[in-house]
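This protein record is not my work; I was only asked to verify it. Would you go through it and say whether the fold makes sense for this chain? Here is the record exactly as it was handed to me.
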Amino acid sequence: MRFGLFYEHQLPRPWSDGQELRLYQDALDQAEIADRVGFDCVWAVEHHFLEEYSHSSAPEVFLAAASQRTKRIRLGHGIVQLPPAVNHPARVAERIATLDLVSNGRVDFGTGESSSSAELGGFGVRRAEKRGQWQDAVDAITRMFVEEPFAGWSSEYLRMPPRNVLPKTVQKPHPPLWVACSRRETIQFAARNGIGALSFSFVEPEDAGKWVDEYYRIIASDECVPAGFAVNPNVTVVLPMMLHEDEATAIDRGIDGAHFFAFALAHYYGPTPHDPGRTNVWEEFQERRESRGFSREQIIANAETLNVNVGSLRGAVGTPAQVIDLIQRYESVGVDQISFVLQSGPNKHEHICESLELFGTAVLPHFTEGREEREAAKAERLAPAVEAALARRDPARKAPSGYRIDEDAEVARASRSRRPLGVEVRAAGRRRFRQGFYNLVHGRTDEQIERRFGPSAQRLFFAGMARAFDPSAAGGFTGELEFQLTRTTWTLVIGENRARAHPGPASDPSLALIVKTADFLRILAGDANPATLLMDGDLELRGDFDLAPRLSEMFGGPSPY
């Protein structure tokens, strides 16, 4: 088992001069302590425009600074957003290689697509295209690491002529690749691409074990075709942590930070309205934490086994003995690394430092003996599968013979790849429709909404959902989804590549949603959060609960993760 620190660089309001400076300087001090006491990796996210939740928009700078304050700890991008509108692939390759050089080969390269509306909208990235952009960028970037010169790229999302992308990484063929994962399907996706799974799903150890088993089954199968030129078979989970010898003290110091982390995550990755520069997420958290399931009173010091999700994301907030037990449960099911979030919400720097020191003396020694031998045995066991997987990967290419830089011709080719205006017009039309629908629903009573949107209007909505179905977000699911509304029932039949809607109940629903018509339409309009409705008892789910978090993305909406 390996251990990491995970940084969002959270900064709840109210803000004052110098707070961001202190936030970053404290984080560097913490990274230095983590390096000294034996942590294995420090991870930093890349997020943009997510006020209070994450002020970490340039993780490569933070990690470069950390590289000069540390000696052995690895430096993980958790993750780099790969849509080209956010980060051009060549710039990503250059930054990763430079960080690998200044850190003397200590980089882990985590990748992701981005999912928040604030970021996708801010950079003009279409949600339906972000997975394709990720796949395209990973393939191009890893080729930039190994091809000399890079042989060029021409795709729907990226057009780039041959260039020698410099510098090259210390680690060969490139740093270990990871991808952000939030549910079972993305864990499978990581395995199929031969990439480490960086999981943010906060699952209990016993549930994580099922994911780990499936991950390694795919790694060892013909399904694994590496996205890069090396395979990184590892699974990491992320958990909140605050450590103290006295359980009540650990809870008092750490539970608000753990709860704010989860609340702010739901704020930005759900339909909650946000006004840039004005919405106060911390204030909303304090006002709504109990109604959202984050009551402080439900977290009781009882010296019993920690449960990750019971008590709304307590995680590893407790005593050394409790955290040792929790880690052992993850280790027993095959999890390779746990990365802890300590710098979250209002958590204090001095308490974080004390927790790191205590972890190094009271927890870490229980997991270091024989670790290298176990990892070597794992590598030997997987070596044939890794070799077979790499043989399925398309090899590095050679640039066209005699290629010479020609600015005018290259710019002309790039301009021809731009999308037609009609695509932009249709996208703008969809945005206007959604805003108009929100205006019709917002502030209206249940009776007003149901009177305005009867069965005929509902038919149009469900037909629209069927047309918006995205097979890539379904994770291979086929079956029936049933929606029991106030006076009507509708069914969506999901096939491999398309969906269709019909009135009436399903014959064998995989998942049934029971909700008032008005609340269902509020969800569609972005005026209600399904998680809140579920916790308040206004939304009932029957069947496969794992399907529920996927529904939004399956039908063209934002990811809940």
